[in-house]
TrEMBL record:
<dbReference type="InterPro" id="IPR036179">
    <property type="entry name" value="Ig-like_dom_sf"/>
</dbReference>
<protein>
    <submittedName>
        <fullName>Cell adhesion molecule L1-like b</fullName>
    </submittedName>
</protein>
<dbReference type="Pfam" id="PF13882">
    <property type="entry name" value="Bravo_FIGEY"/>
</dbReference>
<dbReference type="InterPro" id="IPR003961">
    <property type="entry name" value="FN3_dom"/>
</dbReference>
<dbReference type="InterPro" id="IPR013783">
    <property type="entry name" value="Ig-like_fold"/>
</dbReference>
<feature type="domain" description="Ig-like">
    <location>
        <begin position="353"/>
        <end position="441"/>
    </location>
</feature>
<keyword id="KW-0472">Membrane</keyword>
<feature type="region of interest" description="Disordered">
    <location>
        <begin position="533"/>
        <end position="559"/>
    </location>
</feature>
<keyword id="KW-1133">Transmembrane helix</keyword>
<feature type="domain" description="Ig-like">
    <location>
        <begin position="182"/>
        <end position="269"/>
    </location>
</feature>
<feature type="domain" description="Ig-like">
    <location>
        <begin position="75"/>
        <end position="168"/>
    </location>
</feature>
<dbReference type="Pfam" id="PF00041">
    <property type="entry name" value="fn3"/>
</dbReference>
<keyword id="KW-0677">Repeat</keyword>
<dbReference type="GO" id="GO:0007420">
    <property type="term" value="P:brain development"/>
</dbReference>
<dbReference type="GO" id="GO:0005886">
    <property type="term" value="C:plasma membrane"/>
</dbReference>
<feature type="region of interest" description="Disordered">
    <location>
        <begin position="955"/>
        <end position="991"/>
    </location>
</feature>
<feature type="domain" description="Fibronectin type-III">
    <location>
        <begin position="753"/>
        <end position="852"/>
    </location>
</feature>
């Protein structure tokens, strides 16, 4: 619960809940923040006790501000009631309705009718779902008989789907269905009244029954249907998106068939939440004066206005007049049934003499010809009058170059040297006066040193000032290193500047005089050259300097540009006249402008710079502008009128009727209704389309596509197949983007998958190759399996025939190819597939071996599924083995479990290094050999003394197992009996070990259909266990050092 406020002194906070005092600090479970009214309700227990309507109050000694009411709702998990529904028996041809009656929950609510197997109930002109979620049948047919009509209610905000008990419908067939005229299943009666808020979607529905199936038509009484009205659900639903006031009125639906018709009337009223017409403003007033606080709001129905002072109710109407003033915070609240507005206004009462907040004696510097701003910030009550004077003069500075702003600052445009001096800011009100001084220094731009590259041009300026009375004695000289230099004049330069000769006029060869058109107030020297067909001859000696008299300008500025960088301003810029075009001193420009769309007089301003900003203009309206040059001699010619627009603002409307047409799995076509030009508030730049991919947990990345120009459709490429998108369209101008349209949700169809990121050969034998891969990162649909192809290849162009293996299980990620040629190079190709087709191929190569490696598969006897482990013995030390757990019924290309193990080595003595060279080891071995020799001698002596026994009897009594030879039981032949191992396997020396505490197996799950539990969750049923034997197979390979 957030509540922040600022004030001086620091405010204190308190809360009310349902109109009663509520102190968060008394509840230890709530988390509080220092110097703040915010507190946090932790979601770790029963939240329902915190439900209610809250309001925050922030107070100090000057008053109390309040917040809007905050309603805290803790939603309950919606559930359908447990109920037993009798089958609905209906005769063929009769209408019937299946009621959903969804539980209440947080909107939006989405209703779906499906079978128990999650197949949607087909809807058409005869069968349709109403806005209330009920399923209506215009007339029953035999195929409507089924036992699994299920209504599902989805609440996306809490990610919950609940299912109603399945309903059963039994349709009794008849010999003939009687035709009948239409009647309405919904709505009831002959008329309805619909009230909705501006901006919402209007949805009107008429669902009729009858035979033949009625068709529904829509009209708006006395008007055409709105352009944005769209019939849905086979004409039974009319949707008008984002309604406006003009969409109010009387609508009629008409359902008719060959036997008659029925109508229903809808009276639609579009209402609006409150909107400020005049919002209260904080005021500073004097003691004893009246204060008027304006507060009015519009809306439908008309909002009710209530007043509070420091949070306490006060009687008042749309405006409040206060006589007995005191410092407080006044609240105005405007509300109707669609919302409310709240505004706090601070009323400060005080009489204070002016206090100047700017420091005394500030120094300001300005460059000649530039602007300067001198400040005089003041606080007073009542407000003060502010004047600026110069050099102890009693008169205020005046003129077009001087502006005193509302905050007291003095701005001087195009500063002149004469503006240097001391300025005084004087402020007065009824309580007193105050003043400060400031100094302004005007700087002249001094020549600057230059560093230039060899071969480039250096331009040195010499701007000299002198008393005009000495003009005849004035001379301009240039020196280099204290030596006077002569000027080198450029012949026919493209720029006519001092020091550049320019051809001015040509006359026939028999003329010896010419009339020249010159600029006023310019020093000239002239020279004459002869010209014939060969070229120009040498020029004559130049004349003495001749200065033309000053004259009015003979041209006006050109290339006028009108721009609007801010909504309520218009910037006017132009190319200034060249110095030679001034024709005299004192050049200024008169800027004249007026609105083009209404009749008004020209507004005029005199400026010296070549730009001007018109302030407080309406947003984006056409203006006529003209600029005329003027100097001390007079005005230039009548200027041309140019047209431009004032500043732009952001577009205020979004495109309507946004529709998406899916072209293929990654491209859609988007169309929309153009935004009206009155809503653009500027030059149309174009439209932006923003599709955003939707994921289960969050919104995905969004991309922005810009389509310039005036258009109403665009093609959006690069979408991800088999994905949900939310798309908005907005317009833009030079100022920026307008609001986005209502989001349009759509799904892209399935496409082909991306290529598999991993595909490798895991084992190569003489006749077999093992392959493994991973699923594509973007399946772009539902994987249906894989297409595996392979062929013989060699170093030349020759290749063998392409062999194909269709793998229909999408979960398979391993495969063994058999019956391959030895010592042959193969190339393998893999593609992932959906119902649309197979994606790009990924390939791998390998060469089969000459001989099968030492290892070969050994398969144990079939194991009981109740066993949880199996012991494998008879393995070689220091050898690497591959162990697999597979099902007998499988094709041995896939395994439930697979791992690689390495048995321990017996040569542990080598760890300690060369013990055979140790003395104690040699002595021990010698003692053992001597003892063995003594035992053998004793046996030999004993035998020679006549101790004999029958070898034959011994052998008959204790037959040697190894001497029995290889019988048929040693290697079992292949059999279809699950109890027998594969041919070539050996019996494992396993011991039967009692099963653990779990009898479940991956192969014991049945194939029963998944069902919805009554609370909306999916559950899987265990089917009857099928006893399946599982065997293990062992593959030994010689261990190689790492």
């Amino acid at each position: 619960m957030t509540c922040e406020a600022k004030g001086n002194p620091e405010p204190e906070f308190r809360w009310t809940k349902n109109g009663q005092e509520f102190d968060p600090f008394l509840d230890p479970r709530l988390m509080k923040e220092e110097n703040s009214g915010t507190f946090v309700i932790p979601n770790d227990g029963n939240l329902t006790e915190y439900q209610g309507t809250y309001r925050c109050y922030a107070s100090n000694k000057l008053g109390t501000a309040i917040s809007k009411e905050i309603e805290f709702i803790v939603p309950h998990v919606p559930k359908f009631p447990k109920e037993t529904l009798d089958p609905l028996v209906v005769e063929e041809g009769q209408p019937f309705t299946l009621q959903c009656n969804p539980p209440k929950g947080i909107p939006p609510l989405q209703i779906y009718w499906m079978t128990i197997n999650l197949q949607h109930i087909e809807q058409d002109e005869r069968v349709s779902m109403g806005l209330n979620g009920d399923l209506y049948f215009s007339h029953a047919v035999e195929k409507d008989s089924r036992r699994d009509y299920c209504c599902f209610a989805a609440f996306p905000r809490i990610r919950t789907i609940v299912q109603k008990t399945a309903m059963s419908v039994i349709v009794k067939t008849t010999n003939a269905i009687l035709e009948r005229r239409p009647t309405l299943l919904t709505p009831s009666g002959v008329k309805s009244e619909i009230q909705l808020v501006k901006g919402e979607d209007l949805k009107l529905e008429c669902i009729a029954e009858g035979f033949p199936t009625p068709k529904v038509e829509w009209v708006k009484m006395g008007h055409h249907l709105p352009d944005k009205a769209k019939p849905e659900s086979h004409g039974k639903l009319l949707i008008v998106s984002a309604v406006e006031q003009e969409d109010s009125g009387k609508y009629m639906c008409k359902a008719k068939n060959t036997l008659g018709e029925v109508v229903h009337y809808f009276t639609v009223t579009v209402e609006e939440p409150p909107e400020w017409v005049s919002e209260p403003e904080s005021q500073l007033s004097m003691i004893g004066s009246e204060v008027h606080i304006q507060c009015s709001a519009s809306g439908t129905p008309q909002p009710t206005v209530t007043w509070k002072v420091n949070g306490v109710p006060l009687n008042g109407q749309s405006h409040l007049t206060l006589n007995n003033l005191f410092i407080a915070v006044y609240q105005c609240e405007a509300s109707n049934r669609h919302g409310n507005l709240l505004s706090n206004a601070n009323i400060m009462i005080m009489n204070l003499p002016p206090m100047i907040l700017t420091n005394e004696g500030e120094d300001y510097s300005a460059v000649e010809g530039k602007g300067v701003m001198m400040h005089c910030k003041v606080f007073s009550s009542p407000p003060s009058t502010i004047t600026w004077s110069k050099d102890d003069s009693s008169e205020s500075v005046e003129g077009p170059r001087f502006t005193i702003h509302e905050n007291g600052s003095l701005e001087i445009y195009s500063v002149e040297r004469e503006d240097t001096g001391q300025y005084t800011c004087l402020v007065k009100n009824t309580e007193g006066s105050s003043a400060i001084d400031a100094m302004l220094y005007v700087k002249v731009v001094a020549p600057e040193d230059q560093q230039i590259l060899i071969g480039t041009t250096a331009q040195l300026s010499c701007l000299a000032e002198y008393d005009k009375s000495f003009s005849n004695d004035f001379e301009l000289l240039w020196e280099k290193d204290d030596m006077e230099i002569a000027l080198n004049y450029t012949e026919n330069s493209s720029q006519w500047e001092p020091g550049n000769w320019k051809e001015l006029h040509r006359v026939p060869g028999n003329h010896n005089s010419a009339v020249l058109k010159l600029h006023g107030h310019v020093d000239y020297r002239f020279r004459v050259s002869g010209v014939n067909s060969v070229g120009r001859g040498p020029p004559s000696e130049p004349t003495e300097r001749y200065k033309t008299p000053a004259a009015a300008p003979d041209k006006n500025p050109e290339n006028i540009k009108i721009e609007g960088h801010l909504p309520h301003e218009m910037d006017i810029n132009w190319e200034p006249l060249l110095p030679i075009e001034h024709n005299g001193p004192g050049l200024e420009y008169k800027v004249s402008y007026r609105r083009q769309d209404i009749l008004e007089d020209w507004r005029e301003h005199m400026v010296k710079r070549h730009s001007f900003v018109v302030k407080n203009t309406p947003t984006f309206v056409p203006y006529e502008i003209k600029i005329q040059a003027k100097n001390n001699q007079g005005w230039g010619p009548e200027p041309k009128i140019v047209t431009g627009y004032s500043g732009e603002d952001f577009p205020s409307a979004a495109p309507d009727d946004v529709a998406v047409e899916v072209m293929n799995s990654s491209v859609v076509k988007v169309s929309w209704a153009r935004v009206h030009k009155d809503k653009l508030h500027g030059h149309l730049g174009g439209y932006r389309v923003i599709p955003q991919k939707q994921t289960f947990k969050s919104h995905g990345d969004k991309q922005t596509l810009t389509f310039p120009g005036d258009r109403n459709h665009a093609t959006v490429p690069g979408l991800t197949p088999f994905s949900e998108y939310s798309l908005i369209v907005m317009t833009f101008n030079r100022r920026g983007n307008g609001p986005g349209s209502h989001p349009v949700n759509f799904k892209t169809p399935e496409g082909v998958p991306e290529k598999n990121p991993i595909f490798r050969v895991t084992d190569v034998q003489k006749h077999t190759v093992s392959l493994a891969w991973s699923q594509p990162l973007e399946p772009n649909g539902i994987l249906t399996g894989y297409l595996l192809e392979y062929q013989l290849i060699n170093d030349t162009e020759d290749v063998g025939p392409l062999q194909t293996v269709d793998i229909s299980n999408p979960d398979t990620t391993k495969w063994i190819l058999r019956d391959l040629e030895p010592v042959s190079k193969y190339k393998f190709y893999l593609r992932s597939c959906t119902t649309v087709g197979c994606g790009p191929v990924v390939s791998e190569e390998c060469t089969t071996t000459l001989e099968t490696s030492e290892g070969h598969w050994k398969i144990s006897e079939a194991l009981n599924t109740s066993k949880t482990f199996h012991i494998i013995d008879g393995l070689k030390p220091g050898t690497e083995y591959t162990v697999r757990l597979i099902a007998n019924s499988w094709d041995k290309n896939s395994s439930i479990f697979e791992d690689v193990i390495t048995t321990m080595s017996t040569g542990l003595a080598s760890i300690h290094g060369g013990i055979s060279t140790q003395g104690w080891f040699i002595g021990l071995m010698c003692a053992i050999a001597l003892l063995t020799l003594i035992v053998l001698i004793a046996c030999f002596v004993n035998r020679n003394k006549g101790g004999k026994y029958s070898v034959k009897e011994k052998e008959d009594l204790h037959p040697d197992v190894e001497s029995q030879g290889m019988n048929d039981d040693t290697f079992c032949e292949y059999s279809d009996n699950d109890e027998k191992p594969l041919k070539g396997s050996q019996h494992s020396l396993s011991r039967e070990i009692k099963a653990g505490d779990s009898g479940d197996s991956l192969v014991d799950y049945g194939d029963e259909d998944a069902q919805f539990n009554e609370d909306g969750s999916f559950i899987g049923e265990y089917a009857g266990r099928k006893e399946k034997r599982v065997s293990t197979e062992i593959k030994a390979t010689v261990q190689t050092p790492a």
